[in-house]
Design goal:
The protein is mainly β and 200 residues long. It contains 2 helices and 13 strands; from the N terminus they run E-E-E-E-E-E-H-E-E-E-E-E-H-E-E. A 5-stranded mixed sheet has the order 4-5-7-10-9, with no helix packed on it. Strands 3, 6, 8 and 11 form a 4-stranded antiparallel sheet that branches. The chain has a two-stranded antiparallel sheet with strand order 1-2. The chain starts with a strand and ends with a strand.
Length: 200
């Protein structure tokens, strides 16, 4: 907000208050011989292996549950390969969110696996017979963090996790802080500092 001598003052500003979200969910597909963490089954079908992630349900109304998160990241890994980047295969991953239909909203899978894109490749489709949202996504074998997000149908706004995942103040989040300097008379900003901090 302002500089007072050698102090930088940040007063409370509502614009800096934002939802806390929830810890990311996780699963592993490190082998095609047996199900990994939070996967129900693995089966060879047609031309490749298919992996079914254990069914999920909304967490917005549930108590906070701690899980050591990787903040949406993923790691390519095949448990028996000397170089997983070469040895890991693509598998078709089946996601299922056991939930009533959110009328007028689109539901997506989010995490670094989507590279910040929200389109048909990670948009879930509601299956009325099964009573939930489903999606098949080709992913390389590995360990994944993901979450469910939604936005109004037809909107281009960045989806929110609040409706499905909920907002829990205990959630450990990672923040990247960039400090810029613009000297009097300059027409550009200089990056003078950067750090990443965790809230937990």
């Amino acid at each position: 907000m302002r500089v007072e001598g050698s102090r930088i003052v940040y007063s409370h500003t509502p614009q800096l208050v934002f939802p806390a979200s929830n810890e990311y969910r996780r699963f592993e597909t490190v082998s095609t011989r047996f199900p990994g963490m939070r996967t129900d089954s693995v089966k060879y079908m047609g031309t490749n292996y298919h992996v079914w992630v254990a069914p999920d349900s909304p967490r917005a109304d549930r108590e906070y549950e701690y899980d050591r998160t990787q903040h949406g990241r993923f790691l390519i890994r095949e448990y028996n390969a000397t170089d997983s980047n070469i040895g890991a295969d693509y598998v078709t991953v089946h996601f299922f969110l056991d939930s009533p239909e959110y009328i007028g909203r689109e539901v997506y899978i989010d995490g670094e696996i989507t590279y910040g894109q929200f389109d048909s490749s990670n948009r879930m489709v509601y299956n009325g017979t099964m009573g939930g949202y489903e999606l098949q996504m080709p992913l390389k074998q590995g360990a994944y963090n993901y979450r469910y997000v939604s936005r109004p149908a037809g909107s281009k706004e960045y989806p929110s996790s609040s409706l499905i995942e909920g907002d829990k103040y205990e959630t450990g989040n990672e923040y990247s802080i960039y400090v810029y300097l613009r000297k009097p008379g300059d027409r550009y900003d200089r990056l003078v500092g950067y750090t990443t901090v965790n809230s937990n």
